[in-house]
Batch of 2 targets.
Target 1
Amino acid sequence: MGDGKSAVKKITTPLTDDVVRGLHAGDAVLISGKIYTARDLAHKRLVEALAKGEELPFIINGAVIYYVGPCPAKPGQVIGACGPTTSYRMDSYTPTLLQAGLRGMIGKGNRSPAVIEAMKRFCAVYFAAVGGAAALLAQRVKAARVVAYADLGPEALQELLVEDFPAIVVNDCYGADLYQEGVRRWCQCQHLITQ
Amino acid sequence: MRKIPVSTVRDTVARLCIEANCVLGDDMVQALEQALNIEESETGGEVITQLLENQRIARQELMPICQDTGWAVVWVEIGSQVQVDGGELGDAIQEGVAKGYTEGYLRKSIVADPLRRKNTGDNTPAIIYYDIVPGDRLKITVQPKGGGSENMSEVKMLSVADGADGIKRFVVDRVWRSQANPCPPVIVGVGIGGTIEKCAMLAKQALLRDVGSLHPDPFYAEMEKELLAEINRLGIGPQGLGGRVTALAVFIEAFPCHIATMPCAVNINCHAARHKTAIL
């Protein structure tokens, strides 16, 4: 995925500075390694924990958070359907987590200017996975365990071991935004994209 | 009076919840296949290919198409000659939703209170709309509705003077402001007329139409066609990454109006446009 740009890049977590700097908006990637699930309520708790000076339930330095609330696993499954949820709901919490060392986020949909600015400042990257491709994405998850906030049910914080998890770089650490560039290229309503 | 056992209602609702979430309708599969032919953006084409592959896996493994298995919105048409035997119809529907979401390993996405946000644990309550119709049949439609696209929906009380152009501007602008968030390619449900709540209901009901079907009123059939063309000029494309296919369909439901009002509601559905019906 990437309109004829570079070939698919394989990356592993945790992300280093060098890896993040090598990623550009439009790059298709396959992510392998451990990633952490967190959505609305888990974000609230993570940011509250940081404010109180408490230790987080996972090592945030270099970590990648996946915005997802999976379906329950059937017997014999690692995880149920697990596509990305809409990212902007996490925007108000994200700069704090980036400052704490978070390096990557997987979700879907546009981010706020404050998040994009914080990604430049703290050298981080935002990936989109295909929203609604939840059965397909579940096949790339090889192990899953709840790490914290089990009381939140589908919103619990889980550690996932993923292999070749497909995503595309939307916002890189240089401030580029694939959503804006992509729509600008295809929009036939000039008055909407002149600003 | 024709009697239908309450257990039949419960089990039917449970089955519809699972089927709707795991088996994408043939109309949607066909629409996605057509979209793949139309889409010129390479990224957009890749997204649609993944969506088609995803629904194949979901169908085969009886896995949800999307992890957001939605609010269970249930439309009930109960014949005046039907009696539900052995319990209450409303209870049977709620029990059916709880059963379907639990036994089908579907995600429980409902919190008991909007501010205190504790999960109810079984995806109840369902939102149920009843209609009493002539006859001795009971028609039940389960429409799981995802939250991401619901968040991009809106009701506006337009001025009568805004006319059809005002409606079109509002609908297209609502889709433009949504960008990638509601998981395009989307289905756009539009309600026009009625009171504020009736209008919103019409927009949701519009989403039940088969993709590819025409509005029976040529006036609205034409408006749907114009809106779809205009929305697909926006360039948002599959997943908002840019492309030709932003919407697969625009469906309008109109209703009589007060002389002073012209409400319009837009209810957006993601590409996982799910609904299943049973007639008992």
Target 2
Amino acid sequence: MAFGFNNVKIEEATTMIKVGLIGAGKMGISHLSILGAHPDVEIVGVSDTSKLVLDVLKKYSGFKVFSDYSKMLDEVKPEAVVVAVPTKFHTIINKTLLSKGIHVFSEKPLALKAEEGEELVRLAKEKGLVTQVGYHNKFIGTFMEAKRLINGGHIGDIFHFTGESYGPVVVKNKQNNWRADPEEGGGCLMDYAAHVIDLINYVIGPIERVSGAKLESYYSRNVEDGVYSLLELASGVGGVLSVNWSDETYRKMSTSVTALGSKGKIICDATEIKVYFKSSDVPGGYTKGWTIKHINDFAVPVDFYLRGEEYSAQIDYFIKSIQKVVPNDINTFETAWQTDRVISLIKNCAKK
Amino acid sequence: MDRILFGDNQFFGVNHASDEKSRAQAIRFKDDSSIIRTLGYAQEAGINTFMCTTHDRISGICDYIRGNPDKYQGFKIYPCMPYAHKYANAVTELGIVGTLKEYVPGNFFGSIFKGGVAFVSKDYLSMMELLIDAEMKMFKGISTPVIFLQNVVTDLLLGLGMKEVLKSFYDYVAKKYNAEAGFITMNLPKLLSVLNSVGIENPIVCASINSAGFRMSGGKELYEQTLKQGKARVIAMQVLSGGAVSAKEAIEYVCNLPNIESILFGASSRGNINETASLIRQFDRTTELSESK
């Protein structure tokens, strides 16, 4: 694999990493398949609460399975663990793993409450462990290109930005799992909006203040289905967040970021980036006026593809961080904690 | 298999290169009649195989095909199952066990849950068989000589090392539907070696193959080497995902590769269907000529 994140020179990695999985639900099984195909990974154990899932994984994949994750940690001693359990269990499990000196890839968001993240960040730093959170959009080529153009000043001073995400998760009055329970980390804010907030923090700039927020429920009884908010960056630049997981006109989750600047404009989603330049002072590959580029031009080549290059790329980045081939500076617990803090600002603002 | 197969992504708002185009297509093909009309354009262009997802809306198309046998003489459908978003959305809402309870027909699931968790291996595979049957219902009476497993499932099983499940799909489709199994994958070289290891010789495999190397996991060179070995009946898809390359160059690339039995493409307009089909035929003739020299 030849990844060039942050222009780090990549050498051929050979160390095998012993990896365990905690939580074999939708995301966990997808991670497990990607890990299973990774040449530098040995899957040493899988833990979950579903006997059926464990039974299937044992029978057809031959994995060592555990209904109790502590037992897995003691018995097979993984060097790294991927955590894909409901959000309310993230903190307790991630803390246990870090205390035991285990590298952690955790699903997003980092924690149920913003306060919980601080200790995890400190612990990871003290122990010198690799941490990563599954904000996979950062591994999508179009968003990487948007970041490059904005950070390079190519569209000038940013006047305003918009972050949006829409999809068909809850489109009827029926839901009875953890995603519908605010105490477990359910709701459109934690599930959908977290991705957009994290992406704005990364591509445009860190969000510092929330000056308005509205959480709306359409179908869900206990959680919000829509999140609308006015955001402000440290630089004072303002933007709008508009997220809704009850929109069935979208076949699947669709996230986009728009930024208007003094020299041009960028409209970017996971499949294409549209860039408008006001003058001929443009970076290579672009022209004055509109240029549209597709993911085909930016897709990060991967050795194994499951649901999108980004899912394989993020796992590969985690493994290579442990091998010290890449610097572990994308999606760390620290940046995910920043996202948690914005989530908390939005919640508090909406309550007012 | 025919040389040219017609795909269905354009009908259901699937466009890997543009979310915006996806939505435009979803609007364009809102009615079944618009899909049927476009299938007609494909037939006029000499294409008689429709490779499609087991999307709910295909069932209306199947009704039309059954109702108009004269119009569809010799017409074949290659079903590709499952329509993954249906299950993915269900798993988000109901969890894995909840989804199985919802979609595995009959009392099957209830009965194995009673009396605790006395699972035997046979149960999982028969559960898969019931799911296949449920997906195949809409095609009753229509010729479906090849039945595909969608890439998200093929590749999931591949990564999980569940070879036996891939083999069971292959065997069941042959036994129950007298059809050959096909596998859609984004990981052609890896998949072929795994299929070979469970005794599946010369499988039908559909994979992204294009001059840009887009969605060719492991790289274009590895794919080209794999094709040279000629150990599979390969269908090339996403052939036009060539980035800056023109349709002509993109198709020339694929037509010049060895051991590609069929080319799958989807298009919305009569003009694009005709253009792509005639480009394939044109480059096939050129290749034949140069080979016979």
